[in-house]
Amino acid sequence: METHCPNFSFTSFYSVVSGVVFFWAVIASAGPLRRVEDTHWYPATATWYGSPEGDGSTGGACGYGNMVDVRPFRARVGAVSPILFKNGEGCGACYKVKCLDRSVCSRRAATVIITDECPGGYCSGGRVHFDLSGAAFGHMAVSGYGGSLRDRGVISVIYRRTPCKYPGKNIAFHVNEGSTPYWLSLLVEFEDGDGDVGSMHIREAKSNVWLEMTHIWGANWCIIGGPLQGPFSVKLTTLSTGKALSARDVIPGNWSPKATYTSRLNFF
């Protein structure tokens, strides 16, 4: 069966910021694994977008839809420059961002989830840059000084990678609009720990063979062939540390496009 997905443009999806995807699963990991958390801080710059106290605009290059408006994404979203976006494989990763100007900045770091890419401007030239929601940007300020901090426009910050935490949530899979038994596309979300996805495989009903899915854009993956026979098991491997999670029969035989199927597991 051919598993390569052709170039497919979800123009309508590209402006979307969220997805919901969870699965029945068995955790399987091979060999010693690194920790995603980094204790070292690195220099970067940051700006903000949307309304001053807002959660960030809906839409985004990761494809997460309007979940920016609800917890746990709410007020915690951010776009990053290509060096952290990683052609979409950086989607879902979490970072702590802290500003250094003690006249307006607190010691508090904002924890943000990567939902979008910021091309051009401060994000170009191999720079590390965060474009945060107004609320996330203001969170770094001393109490009562959020407006003063936002008035600075672009600021110097330090950042580090941190594990994603979604209390009470499990990993899920959203079947993208347009999916058929011959072209199946999935969006992954609410992944604790690493937050990012390095590879995905799918296994058809009554099969022992894992078929590799292709990363198409943002947090979206697909497979073509067919007709593909559900229910489907899904195996997810993180980009950062290679941790793996397998969800048995997470997507039922009577699956439908635009539906979300939730697992009972997560990495934490």
UniProtKB/TrEMBL annotation:
<dbReference type="InterPro" id="IPR005795">
    <property type="entry name" value="LolPI"/>
</dbReference>
<feature type="transmembrane region" description="Helical">
    <location>
        <begin position="12"/>
        <end position="33"/>
    </location>
</feature>
<dbReference type="GO" id="GO:0071555">
    <property type="term" value="P:cell wall organization"/>
</dbReference>
<dbReference type="InterPro" id="IPR007112">
    <property type="entry name" value="Expansin/allergen_DPBB_dom"/>
</dbReference>
<keyword id="KW-0961">Cell wall biogenesis/degradation</keyword>
<feature type="domain" description="Expansin-like CBD">
    <location>
        <begin position="182"/>
        <end position="263"/>
    </location>
</feature>
<dbReference type="GO" id="GO:0006949">
    <property type="term" value="P:syncytium formation"/>
</dbReference>
<keyword id="KW-0472">Membrane</keyword>
<dbReference type="InterPro" id="IPR007117">
    <property type="entry name" value="Expansin_CBD"/>
</dbReference>
<keyword id="KW-1133">Transmembrane helix</keyword>
<dbReference type="Pfam" id="PF03330">
    <property type="entry name" value="DPBB_1"/>
</dbReference>
<protein>
    <submittedName>
        <fullName>Expansin-B3</fullName>
    </submittedName>
</protein>
<keyword id="KW-0732">Signal</keyword>
<keyword id="KW-1015">Disulfide bond</keyword>
<keyword id="KW-0812">Transmembrane</keyword>
<dbReference type="InterPro" id="IPR007118">
    <property type="entry name" value="Expan_Lol_pI"/>
</dbReference>
<dbReference type="InterPro" id="IPR036749">
    <property type="entry name" value="Expansin_CBD_sf"/>
</dbReference>
<dbReference type="GO" id="GO:0005576">
    <property type="term" value="C:extracellular region"/>
</dbReference>
<dbReference type="InterPro" id="IPR036908">
    <property type="entry name" value="RlpA-like_sf"/>
</dbReference>
<dbReference type="GO" id="GO:0016020">
    <property type="term" value="C:membrane"/>
</dbReference>
<dbReference type="GO" id="GO:0009506">
    <property type="term" value="C:plasmodesma"/>
</dbReference>
<dbReference type="InterPro" id="IPR009009">
    <property type="entry name" value="RlpA-like_DPBB"/>
</dbReference>
<comment type="function">
    <text>May cause loosening and extension of plant cell walls by disrupting non-covalent bonding between cellulose microfibrils and matrix glucans. No enzymatic activity has been found.</text>
</comment>
<keyword id="KW-0134">Cell wall</keyword>
<comment type="similarity">
    <text>Belongs to the expansin family. Expansin B subfamily.</text>
</comment>
<feature type="domain" description="Expansin-like EG45">
    <location>
        <begin position="59"/>
        <end position="169"/>
    </location>
</feature>
<keyword id="KW-0964">Secreted</keyword>
<dbReference type="Pfam" id="PF01357">
    <property type="entry name" value="Expansin_C"/>
</dbReference>
